Amino acid sequence: MAGGGGGDGGEPEFQVAPMIDVLLVLLVFFMAITTTQVLKVDRTITLPVAPDAQKKDSQSNQLVLNVKLDGKKALFVYEQKSYSDAEKLVPLLKEAMREDAIKVGQQTDTSFRAIIRGDRNVPAVYISQAMNACGDAGITDVSFSAVNKE
């Protein structure tokens, strides 16, 4: 009775088709994850320059809050929705932090991070309002996005 997968010399043959299937599944997985992260970043924001800025590791338990100018007033953009008042974000930020804590399986998630992406032309008072909204929501780890060079 003949067995499958063997050649003339008794050595198993390398199967390429299953390897291609695994590769395609991984490719689709990483494309899906990358797409959701890119949607959170507003490309119309010109980040400030900070030559000594340090890159923080990217983690799954973080949210991105964009702050940009609309005329003379600032807009706070979270999850592709614009808000004119930062205080309106507090319940949304609390909910995001609570949902992440449930995923982690804890009462509160101390490693949850908020990343504020403020346009370089936004007055500091609006960035302060975004920070206060994060603080009111209970987020203690706040980071700012910047670029190293023009």
Radius of gyration: 23 Å
Main pleated-sheet profile: 5 strands, mixed
Distance between the termini: 71 Å
- The beta-strand count equals 5
N-to-C SSE string, H for helix and E for strand:
HEEEHEHE
Helix run count = 3
Helix-residue proportion: 25-40%
Strand order of the largest sheet: 3-2-1-4-5
Shape, principal axes of CA atoms? elongated
Oligomer: single chain
Spans with pLDDT under 50 lasting ≥5 residues? none
Structural class: alpha/beta
Mean pLDDT over the residues: 82
How large a portion of the residues is in β-strands, by DSSP E? 15-25%
Report on this model:
The N and C termini lie far apart (71 Å). The chain is an alpha/beta fold. 16% of the residues are buried. The protein has helices spanning 16-39, 90-104, 124-137; strands spanning 62-70, 73-78, 81-83, 113-118, 141-144. Strands 3-2-1-4-5 form a five-stranded mixed β-sheet, with helices on one face. Helices cover 35% and strands 19% of the residues. The radius of gyration is 23 Å and the shape is elongated. Strand 2 (73-78) and strand 3 form a beta hairpin. It contains three helices and five strands; from the N terminus they run αβββαβαβ.
Search tags:
150 residues, alpha/beta, five-stranded mixed sheet
